[in-house]
Amino acid sequence: MRHILKIIVTIILVLIGFNIALHLIGKLFSVIIPIVILAAICFGLYRIWYHQNNRRHSDQFFD
To answer: Which domain of life is it from (predicted)?
Structure first.
């Protein structure tokens, strides 16, 4: 009987632990993902702007 209770308590503790971990991971992701997306957008825009500027400069060199 004690053995079964130990298993049940262990399962409950594991489930609570998972819930807490998932909650914390969810909080982290809700902070990290928008930052990553913003960084990716900024980097993409910078690359486009940089390439456009470089093209203009190279055109001037060729002229």
So the answer is: Bacteria
Residues 35-52, buried b or exposed e (16+ Cβ, 10 A)? eeeeeeeeeeeeeeeeee
Reported as a single tens digit per residue, the pLDDT across 15-29 is 999 999 999 999 998
DSSP letter for 35, please.
Answer: H
In degrees, rounded to 5, the angle at the alpha carbon of residue 59 between the alpha carbons of residues 58 and 63 is 115
Give the structural domain span for 34: 1-63
Residue whose token pair is 């503790």: 13
CA 52 to chain centroid: 29
Report the distance separating Cα 20 and Cα 46, nearest Å.
39
Q: Which two tokens stand for residue 51?
A: 């390439």
